[in-house]
Design goal:
By secondary structure, this protein is of the alpha+beta class. It is built from 14 helices and 31 strands. Helix 13 links the parallel strand 23 and strand 24. It comes from Lacrimispora amygdalina.
């Protein structure tokens, strides 16, 4: 996300994030062959998309660091909405208060604006407690100069019947006798020629001139004790609608329909539509750095907002791309990779890939190290981001200090441990920080940055494809993604049709060597197959094809 600061610092108008909730759960996706006649385990399996399991306070540190950057990205008139649930909502609000301000004047100042309660499901029969049916959305602004358009919602019959019970005899119109005072102190006013003082601690909301006008219009209602009230007519009130409040019960996730894409934490488009409409204008920039199913980007696109989405999960990128292409006539978009995390987008397999590629002797039972290499104890950092000092906390908490002490006593001045830390980029002072905190012991610490030190490292992730140009057509003869086949426990020979394994095919007829701009976007429906044969235009030059399998892993090649 820090890559965006150079170009977008102070330029993002709305940030909506639906980050991991620290739910202590893994989220999975059912992978199933298309149009398969094969029964049993060979036709489908569950693939873990991402884990939401964190150690100690690393989740809060993870969120804190990213929220700091988000504030820098926000424009002065920008808003941020943080979507969470009961697991960490209390702690996240404290962090948001610290970074954005706790909103001493929530209506006019910067910082905290609302805690929105969103009912996300119907009734639950949770054992031993009340049913948990809501999420929390915190709304903060960067300054007091924020954008906000109040939404007026349609009144229910139940609300109208309970509110407008009084009938005006002359016209038959139903109305609600509303207050004609407000908090504060003020002078008396004349009502029907009689001087009336407002109740203690209140003042009349209207000047004498306006009260006289309301009297002539028959807009003031008097109770049996002579107390004046302002008439709110049902027909006028209904036409205007009711101001949206901070409890949202009118938007439930769809369980069926075109909008459903099978992503475990997908949010409904109407929810994002409400937030985007309220806090942005056309052409404003909307950002979601936990993109997931892509709902934020899709709604922003439909509402003619510019948008930026980011996610470490390759399946999320693939799903979002597919949804955006369905509305591409509205506006275009570009897809970028920041750093080469190609082999590590599935965190479940990441350590195994690194261990195999580096030749690390794997430890299966150690709670400290992942293995040993050339006399060094190896610790592999999270592979979906650069390593930070916070990532070292788990290592420091579990180091064998008793062993260190024993080695130090036996051979003072000698190295007590050689530690090799493997990461995908890291903070500049990562090594120095660890050495300083463990200065009581002599350690030999080496940092291996795969992006820098091992850029030529080859990871085994094979896919075979046979793509040929025949006369005026580009034809995919065969495609065998070996990782997917392995998970399905299938051999090449068992595949009835290679297209059963494919999610999409993109073709760029004039590849510039850097950015792929596909003119062919073959994304079939759930039960349909890609064409696999494409007519080559006369203007074609350098051709590049991208084939994406059901795991959202892609093979890119020039033809």
């Amino acid at each position: 996300m820090s890559h965006l600061l150079k170009e977008y610092r102070g330029k993002v108008d709305l940030i909506y994030i639906d980050p991991p909730f620290d739910s202590k759960a893994d989220y999975k996706k059912q992978i199933k062959l298309k149009r398969s006649s094969i029964q049993g385990d060979m036709s489908s399996f569950e693939e873990k998309q991402y884990g939401d399991i964190w150690v100690n306070d690393e989740y809060l540190q993870f969120m804190y660091e990213r929220l700091i950057i988000m504030k820098e990205l926000l424009s002065d008139s920008g808003s941020i909405f943080l979507h969470c649930d009961w697991h960490k909502s209390a702690y996240l609000k404290i962090i948001m208060d610290e970074i954005f301000g706790n909103g001493g004047d929530a209506a006019n100042g910067p910082g905290y604006k609302n805690e929105i309660i969103w009912q996300r499901t119907g009734a639950h029969n949770d054992a031993g407690k009340y049913g948990v049916i809501h999420d929390t959305i915190y709304w903060y602004t960067k300054s007091s100069n924020y954008k906000f358009e109040m939404e007026m919602i349609e009144l229910t019959e139940e609300h109208k019947n309970s509110r407008f019970k009084t009938i005006e005899q002359e016209t038959g119109r139903r109305f609600y006798p509303g207050p004609i005072t407000a908090p504060g102190d003020g002078p008396s006013r004349l009502f029907r020629g009689k001087e009336l003082l407002p109740p203690a601690g209140r003042h009349w909301s209207y000047s004498q001139e306006n009260i006289d006008k309301l009297e002539k219009e028959n807009r003031i209602y008097y109770s049996s004790t002579g107390i004046p009230y302002l008439k709110e007519y049902e027909d006028e009130y209904t036409q205007q609608g009711r101001r949206l409040q901070s409890i949202w019960t009118d938007i439930l996730p769809s369980k069926t329909g075109k909008e459903i894409v099978g992503y475990p934490t997908q949010k409904p488009e109407k929810l994002l539509e409400r937030i985007i409409n309220a806090t942005t204008k056309e052409s404003d920039v909307v950002f979601d750095c936990f993109m997931g199913s892509g709902t934020t980007a899709v709604v922003a696109q439909k509402k003619n907002r510019r948008f930026i989405g980011a996610d470490i999960n390759l399946a999320a990128v693939q799903i979002t791309t597919k949804r955006l292409l369905e509305n591409e006539s509205i506006t275009g978009f570009e897809l970028y990779n920041v750093n080469n995390y190609d082999f590590f987008r599935n965190p479940v397999e990441a350590k195994g890939l690194i261990i195999d590629a580096l030749g690390i002797q794997k430890y299966d039972s150690s709670t400290v190290y992942d293995g040993e290499l050339d006399g060094y104890m190896v610790k592999i950092m999270p592979t979906n981001r650069i390593a930070t000092k916070a990532d070292l906390e788990e290592l420091k908490a579990n180091l064998p200090y008793k062993t260190f002490e024993k080695r130090k006593e036996e051979n003072p001045g000698a190295v007590v441990e050689r530690i090799k830390i493997v990461c995908m980029g890291h903070e500049a002072d990562l090594k120095a920080s660890l050495e300083q905190e463990l200065s009581a012991y002599k350690l030999d610490i080496e940092i291996v940055d795969i992006l820098r030190d091992k850029s030529d490292l080859q990871f085994k992730r094979e896919a075979d494809a046979n793509v040929v140009k025949e006369n005026s057509t580009l034809t995919v003869k065969e495609f065998y993604p070996m990782n997917l086949l392995q998970k399905l426990s299938m051999q090449k020979e068992s595949v009835e049709d290679w297209r059963q394994l494919v999610e999409s095919i993109f073709v760029d007829w004039n590849y510039d060597g850097e950015t792929m701009r596909p003119e062919v976007c073959d994304i079939p429906g759930k039960d349909d197959l890609v064409a696999g044969v494409y007519e080559i235009p006369d203007s074609a030059g350098r051709i590049k094809i991208k084939i994406t399998d059901l795991l959202s892993e892609s093979l890119e090649m020039e033809v």
